[in-house]
Write a structure and sequence with these properties.
- The chain is α+β, with helices and mostly antiparallel strands and 483 residues long.
- 40% of the residues lie in helices and 21% in strands.
- Strands 3-4-10-5-9-8 form a six-stranded mixed sheet, sandwiched between helices. The chain has a six-stranded mixed sheet with strand order 13-14-12-15-11-16, with helices on both faces.
- A hairpin with a 2-residue loop joins strand 6 and strand 7.
- Helix 1 crosses helix 8.
- The chain is globular and about 65 Å long.
- The N and C termini lie far apart (52 Å).
Length: 483
């Protein structure tokens, strides 16, 4: 299958950096859909991307951007889907259901024939599930886009859902989970997730423990999810490419008009932050290189100006070879290939801050001390204008190219909507970046980043690391969490 362009905003956040991950806001539709025009304000060039928002004749929300000169057309869609939070005993359904619907075959076509059909026309489509939404992507050359949509529609309406394919995918997931448990970095991340998510049902979707959360999933479960979630009432479609709004709206109704009108989604389960903790937990494992993960819960928006400030802050702290963590751990200590920092999504606005590094086994102690010292200094002193100005220039210069590609433009807009922004958020990107000031970012750093951090170390021996708790396996982790 041809994979569409997915160059997104890891460093250009409209709120997409560091996770995933993931309500919608309404505003008046923009009047112009023709030429993309430029307008200058005091912060630099602000571009109008001719984005409009409204309902199709069939009542489906459609956000449209005309990308002139682009040869490919793309739809990026999101169905509100909180059911994953209500089925922790079948957590594997989160990864299994959408993939089986999209690639298990459709109507008269088995999976292999469907793949060949897509190859022949240069088309692509996929489905995936997050913690609060199911996402879909369709992309193809403009002249083959309608044919690709017909295949996608058949997959949604008449999926084959072969039991043998489901069983193969379940075995693949189990084998992958077992292999990941042998990697130090994965083990550290799973331990941190267990601590930060606590007893919330979404914890099971990350750990996939016990294995029955995978093995118990049936074809009937997949079909029940499909019928409950893939509806019109909870669907938003973003269209990007050469199609006019009228043509895109007609295709939206033709593709999704046969879905049920109402979904059977349920309210999300509130997330409760874990109590503050500053424990050092060592998981002794015979790894060749140790993994360090230091982090804690954080409430820092991933959208709009605050999301851009967050991306800038994380870039300065741990976003590459010139970041403070990289210099402290790699250049000064020579203890690792590098170190990084970021904020990943938990649920809604709740997130997880983390600094991580893979280091030589004999340099774990100094590396942990260096990372903690850099973090303390970062919270106290923050960033400077000299730190943020080159990052702002990279953000501003790279964004227009992202919006000139249909696949990435559609993904950016969908991501902005998922982060609670207005449909025309890309029009404000230049101003949001230009308005960023070091002192305002520093205030957010002091207010939002956690004062106390939990340290997870996966290493052969805990000797000399000052651990509060030493365990041999993740199953023992709960014993470390008692006050």
């Amino acid at each position: 299958m041809r994979i569409p362009d997915r160059r997104a905003l890891k460093s250009l956040s409209l709120g997409l950096a560091m996770g995933v991950t993931l309500v919608f806001s309404h505003a008046a539709a923009m009047a112009q859909q023709n030429a993309v025009e430029s307008a200058r304000d005091q912060t630099g060039t602000a571009r109008s991307y001719a984005i409009s928002d409204g309902r199709t004749t069939g009542g489906i929300r459609l956000v449209h951007i005309l990308v002139k000169g682009e040869k490919d057309q793309a739809f990026s869609m999101a169905w509100r889907d909180r059911l994953i939070q209500h089925t922790p005993d079948k957590a594997g359904l989160g990864q299994l259901a959408a993939v089986l619907v999209a690639s298990g075959g459709a109507g008269p076509l088995d999976a292999g024939t469907l793949e060949e059909e897509l190859k022949d026309i240069g088309g692509y489509f996929s489905l995936s599930r997050g913690r609060a939404a199911t996402f879909g992507d369709v992309s193809a050359p403009a002249e083959q886009f309608e044919a690709t949509l017909r295949l996608f529609r058949t997959s949604l309406m008449e999926p084959r859902l072969p039991a043998i394919t489901l069983e193969r995918r379940k075995r693949f997931m189990q084998n992958g989970r077992k292999a990941n448990r042998e990697k130090a970095e994965t083990l550290a991340r799973e331990a941190m997730s267990t601590i930060l998510l606590g007893d919330h049902p979404i914890s099971a979707s990350l750990s996939l423990a016990p294995t029955s959360t995978i093995t118990s999933v049936t074809v009937a479960d997949v079909d029940a999810w499909r019928k409950a979630i893939l509806a019109r009432s909870n669907l938003t479609v973003v269209s990007a490419g050469p199609l006019t709004r009228e043509a895109a709206a007609e295709l939206v109704d033709r593709t999704f008009g046969g879905l049920p009108e109402k979904d059977a989604d349920r309210d999300g389960i509130p997330f409760v932050r874990p109590p503050k903790a500053s424990k050092t937990i060592v998981i002794e494992s015979p790894v060749q290189q140790s993994a360090i993960l230091i982090g804690g819960p954080v409430l820092w928006s991933n959208g709009g100006p605050e999301g851009i400030a967050r991306s800038i802050a994380m870039s300065v702290l741990g976003g590459g070879p010139r970041s403070r963590l990289f210099i402290a751990v790699r250049e000064r200590l020579g203890a690792a290939y590098g170190a990084s920092a970021g904020i990943s999504a938990i649920l809604g606005r709740e997130g997880a801050f983390g600094m991580e590094a893979a280091v030589a086994n004999d340099k774990v102690g100094p590396a942990v001390a260096a990372m903690r010292a850099e973090y303390a200094a970062f919270r106290e002193k923050g960033v400077s204008a000299e730190d943020i100005d080159p990052i702002k220039r990279r953000m501003t210069s790279g964004f227009p190219e992202t919006m000139r590609k249909s696949g990435s433009a559609a993904s950016v807009i969908r991501g902005a909507l998922q982060n609670g922004l207005l449909f025309d958020a890309p029009d404000h990107q230049s101003r949001w970046i230009g308005n960023q000031k070091a002192e305002e970012i520093n205030q957010l750093i002091r207010e939002r980043l956690p004062e106390t951090l939990t340290t997870i170390i996966v290493t052969p021996s805990a000797e000399g690391l000052g651990a509060d708790c030493v365990i041999k396996a993740l199953e023992e982790l709960k014993g470390c969490l008692a006050p």
